[in-house]
Structure formats: structure tokens, C-alpha cells
Amino acid sequence: MSEAFRIGPWRIPAPAVLAPMAGVTDRPFRILARQLGASLAASEMITSDTRLWNSRKSRQRMNHEGEPEPRVVQLAGADPEALAEAARRNVDLGAQIIDINMGCPAKKVCNRLCGSALLQDEPLVGRILESVVSAVQATGRGVPVTLKTRTGWDREHRNGVRVAQIAEASGIAALAIHGRTRADFYEGDAEYDTIRAIRETVRIPVLANGDITSPDKARVVLQYTGTAGVMVGRASHGTPWIFRDINGLLTQGVLPEPLSRAERRDIVLAHLQAIYAFHGEESGLRIARKHLGWYAKLLESAPDARARLMAEVSTSSQFACANELFGAWAQVH
Question: What residues are labeled active site?
């Protein structure tokens, strides 16, 4: 059975945490994931270029009102001084863990030599991590810095172990490793041998990420890698209660009783209301469509359900449609 682990001063009580995902892990989804058992939930990636922080998107990504502690802010960039300044300012704004992104494979990120593109330049990795850790320590608030990365740039250059050693030497408090290289994007199967080798090399907590699709898979990966926890991303789309199930199995040894259809209906409807309240009419409608596209997989017996949900042109009609469809679904036993 899994034990709690620590990231700096923070006790992380259960092994399954939510992966930061651009366009998904906004404040409503982070709060929902935490309510449903995720022991950490990092923000969407925030640029280290503070000149861009006045945009509506950046302001929303930096809004942590009402979130449970510890509040995790993920930063992306390639300039050590800019990242250090961004980290300092986010600590001033209430960040309690700073996470550095060196895992995102997106072209628009990698073309700026951010995200996983940094894995090609190990000396730069070291300079970035040392600068951010030093800047955050100088605030005197005891905020730890963590790193999210991949196993390497491509399969011929799997330098995850060396990057992990650099991270530990730089003062990084914990690592999350996606079991793919940047060249893999999200294709093929995640591999856990490199994650296991990293965990055997460093003394700081390591989280395994990639293809954690069920409680049983989480248990297998945790046993194989020996990591402190698992980071769940895409498997939480439309099933945010996966954290409840994974952490129940890993901490208690048995799966919790499944949620009833009525309970899952209530989660979906409450999530929609939180999206509308946070994002407003236009953005709320669009962002809710994304989540409803995933939730609609529950409505297999109503083949036109997804199309109906996607066709609604206001938040009020979208919510009414969801209330009708998931309400009918919840009545079936």
C-alpha cells in the first residue's frame, strides 16, 4: 500500500495527482479533481514572459481563488532570468509550489526552445533550475520547486537520468517523468524502464506519468517503478473521479464503491456551472463543449447525445440539454 510523501514542507497524502494540461486544467477542473481525490493539481502552463501576463488567458491561469493547498503553478520558458523572475512573482501571488515545464512536446512550445526542447541542452537545464530554485529560496517562504519532464528528446537520446541528476543537484524537490520522449509526443506506449532508472538514481520523490488509465494500471506502474506516486492526465478527461478510485486502491488496497449514476450526473452538472461562472458566456460555452464531449461517452445509449450537446448556442440551453440527458441517464439502473 502506498504511503504519503513530501514535497518540501508539504505532505502529499495519496499517490495520484493531476497532470497539468493546457486547455484542460483550469481552476474549475483543478478544484473538481482535488474534491474527487487528486492530492495535487497544478495550473495550466504559464509563460515566463511577464509582458504577456495581462492577457485574459494568463490572468485566469494565475487565479487560484478557492483552491485547496498546496497551490501549484507551472511555468514554461527558456531564459533562466525570466523564469526566476516569473517564479518570484508567482510566489508573491500565492504559489506554494513552483513547477517547471520541460515536458510539453507541442511545436509552438518547442519551437521557442521551451518545454521538452530544453532536454537537448543539459547545461541550460542546469542554469534554469539553479536560477529558479535560488530565486524562490530568496523569498524566504519555503516554496519548493519541482520539474515535469520526459525521458529524453528522442529514443536515441534518452537522457532522463542525467537530467534528473542535474535537477536533484540544483535543488529540485520532486520530479514528474512522462514515459515518452519528445519525439514520441503521445504516440505508442509509455515506457517505464527510464522512470525506474531515474527513481533508483535520485533521492527526491519521483512521479510516473504516461498511460495511467485505471487503478490497476496505476498499481502496476507504481510497483514496477517504485515511484512515490503517479500523475494522471488524459485518463481524467470525462472521468475526474478516477483519482478517487486510484487513491482508494493504492492507499486502502481495495477499490471504493463506484459512484452512482446520480452522483456522476451531479458532478457533471456542477462542473458545468463552475465553468460558466469562471469563464463567462462565450468562453464558458466553448470550454464546456470540450468537457461535455468527454462526459458524453457515458451516454452510449443515446447516440445523438453528443451532437445535441455540441449544437447548443448558449450556456443556459447547453446546461438544460445536459440536465435532460444526464438526468435521464441517471434514472437507469
Answer: 104
